[in-house]
Write a structure and sequence with these properties.
Length: 366
């Protein structure tokens, strides 16, 4: 079996080799400071006894799992600390397919491209349900696509790439569909701290044995390099997930988990609110400048991405390369996220040069 290298890496590699100054709006790496409590925790950890530098428990540090469980209202035995949200989603999708209820995984279009890649890697088949023009997912469309072959439904809210935030009614109906077809709803909530609308609803609000919630601290604490995520499984599904996690990774990073725990315990809500305010300002600045180009664009309800469509300029990899060379702005081609947004480009607002990037785009398309 052959796996295609994600387009993210091809775009970033091209941008890194380009001549001249290029503003990176490709990857979701927050450019702001992590919490001070996290830095303090790392400094403290460096002076600990030698046993602190050995393997942690495979499922994660007990204290971190307890903290996550308390915050999410679940039993700590349901929590598996993972190598970022990427592994959390991998474990969740694998667990859904292992139930032998079918091999189909329902995904949205547009879609975060790692989901279909993981589906292929795990031997599943992909089925896509188109989101509407605002990125919202209609549960009726999901229900129509579901069948006895459906193993899982993957939902991502706040959504990458559309910025849509699914309301509580949508999440409840998606769980109900999973229950009806004896499938599993996998709810990727990695951008939950970047809900700009106030409408975010976790799948954990629905008491069900047919939903798995995944998350990570990569975005919320601005530490994508720490690779600390987690998955919350129903009690009857968690044991095999822990075993697969142990076989794939043995364990995660003990210092990273310790630092995350210190950050959770020592960081107040104002940290997250400041970053949401920062993103609101960037969305306004970026879209105001896009108005000058006559572009059509999405205004995100959450996460930190804007999709834009420039007349006569489809979202192909070749056009992305051209923007890097001619405008000095690196974004992602819309066709990386599926068929429905192939005319669009996606830009990550995790750079202090957001307004400058938009001005460059305006100058290029004027």
């Amino acid at each position: 079996m052959e796996y295609e290298t994600p387009l993210f890496f091809r775009v970033m590699e091209y941008a890194s080799q380009a001549e001249g100054d290029v503003i990176d709006m490709v990857s979701g790496n927050p450019d702001w400071e992590p919490p001070q409590a996290l830095r303090d925790g790392l400094h403290e950890y460096a002076d600990r006894e030698p046993d602190a530098f050995q393997y942690p428990p495979s499922e994660g540090l007990l204290e971190l799992r307890e903290e996550i469980a308390a915050r999410r209202g679940v039993d700590r035995e349901q929590v598996v600390v993972t190598n970022g949200a990427g592994e959390a989603n991998y474990l969740a999708m694998a667990r859904a397919l292992e139930r032998d209820r079918g091999d189909e995984i329902i995904l949205t279009d547009p879609v975060y491209p790692y989901y279909p890649g993981k589906t292929t890697m795990l031997g599943g088949t992909q089925s896509f349900v188109a989101a509407n023009e605002n990125g919202q997912l209609d549960p009726a469309d999901v229900c129509e696509a579901a069948s006895e072959e459906t193993a899982a439904i993957v939902a991502n809210s706040p959504n990458n790439p559309t910025g849509a935030v699914y309301p509580e009614e949508t999440m409840r109906k998606l769980v109900a569909i999973a229950e009806e077809y004896d499938a599993v709803l996998i709810s990727d909530e990695v951008y939950d701290h970047f809900d700009l609308s106030g409408n975010f609803s976790s799948a954990l609000a629905v008491d069900s044995d047919h939903r798995i919630v995944t998350n990570a601290f990569s975005k919320s604490l601005a530490i994508t390099g720490f690779r600390v995520g987690y998955a919350i499984f129903p009690p009857e599904l968690v044991a095999n997930a822990k075993s697969r996690h142990m076989l794939v990774n043995v364990a995660g990073s003990r210092p990273s988990q310790y630092a995350v725990l210190q950050a959770l315990c020592g960081t107040g809500p104002d940290y997250y609110e400041r970053n949401r305010d920062r993103l609101r300002e960037r969305v306004d600045a970026f879209t105001d400048a896009l108005d000058l180009t006559g572009a059509e664009y999405t205004t995100p309800e959450g996460a930190f991405y804007v999709m834009a469509r420039f007349e006569g300029y489809p979202g192909t990899l070749e056009n992305v390369f051209e923007l890097i060379d001619e405008a000095g702005v690196a974004g992602m081609p819309g066709n990386a996220f599926g068929d429905s947004r192939s005319d669009w480009l996606r830009f990550a607002l995790v750079t202090p040069r957001v307004e400058e990037a938009a001005d460059r785009l305006a100058a290029y398309f004027e």
